[in-house]
């Protein structure tokens, strides 16, 4: 499902730049196969675009309560994660292994998963997303640490 109605809170909001568009299609199919709903904020073509625009669009949907979590894909995942992490309330985890996907949820309570389409193949990407889906925030000592992320020096 990819419709955007006010009453629906989607499982995910997903965005990519041109470098991540093919991987985004694969991930959307992967989510659909698991019965997970998503909003796609673009990009929608292979034309060169600026990744911060899509990181901000994903962060905005989460803060507006339109989706529970986000997935961002660019060439490396780095630009998406830097941008998303500048948004207060967004905790973006760049993951290149399934363990990083798991820990991003379990220890960091990340609400956005960042992926590098030029770094990780789709087989590994599926494992990363699966690990993310199977993990949940452990709380406890991690709660205190996550709260400190919002502190300013
Ligand atoms: C686009 O060429 C590339 O810079 C972008 O996808 C991303 O890797 C940036 O972090």
List keywords for this structure.
about 150 residues; alpha/beta; five-stranded parallel sheet; binds D-ribose
Radius of gyration: 14 Å
H-E order: EHEHEHEHEHH
The share of residues in extended strands comes to 15-25%
Distance between the termini: 42 Å
List segments where confidence is low: pLDDT < 50 over at least 5 consecutive residues.
Answer: none
Write down the overall mean pLDDT.
95
Numbering strands along the chain, what is their spatial order in the largest sheet?
2-1-3-5-4
Commentary on this structure:
The chain is of the alpha/beta class and 153 residues long. The chain contains 6 helices and 5 strands. The chain has helices at residues 21-33, 51-63, 78-84, 98-106, 122-134, 141-149, and strands at residues 10-16, 38-40, 67-74, 92-94, 112-116. Strands 2-1-3-5-4 form a 5-stranded parallel sheet, with helices on both faces. Helix 1 packs across helix 5 (122-134) and helix 4 runs parallel beside helix 5. It is globular. The model has no long low-confidence stretch (mean pLDDT 95). Bound molecules: D-ribose. D-ribose is lined by residues 17, 19, 51, 74-76, 78-79. Residues 17, 19, 51, 74-76, 78-79 line the site of D-ribose (RB5).
């Amino acid at each position: 499902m990819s419709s955007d109605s006010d009453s629906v809170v989607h499982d995910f909001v997903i965005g990519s730049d041109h470098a991540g568009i093919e991987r985004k299609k694969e991930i959307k199919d992967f989510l659909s196969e698991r019965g997970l709903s998503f909003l796609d904020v673009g990009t929608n073509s292979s034309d060169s675009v600026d990744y911060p625009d899509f990181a901000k669009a994903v962060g905005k949907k989460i803060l507006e309560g339109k989706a529970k979590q986000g997935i961002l894909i660019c060439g490396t995942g780095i630009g998406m994660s830097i941008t998303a992490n500048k948004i207060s309330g967004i905790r973006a985890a760049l993951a290149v292994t399934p363990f990083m996907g798991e820990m991003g949820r379990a220890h960091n309570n990340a609400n956005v998963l960042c992926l590098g389409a030029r770094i990780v193949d789709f087989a590994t990407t599926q494992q990363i997303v699966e690990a993310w889906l199977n993990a949940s925030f452990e709380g406890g000592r991690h709660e205190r640490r996550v709260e400190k992320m919002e502190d300013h020096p």
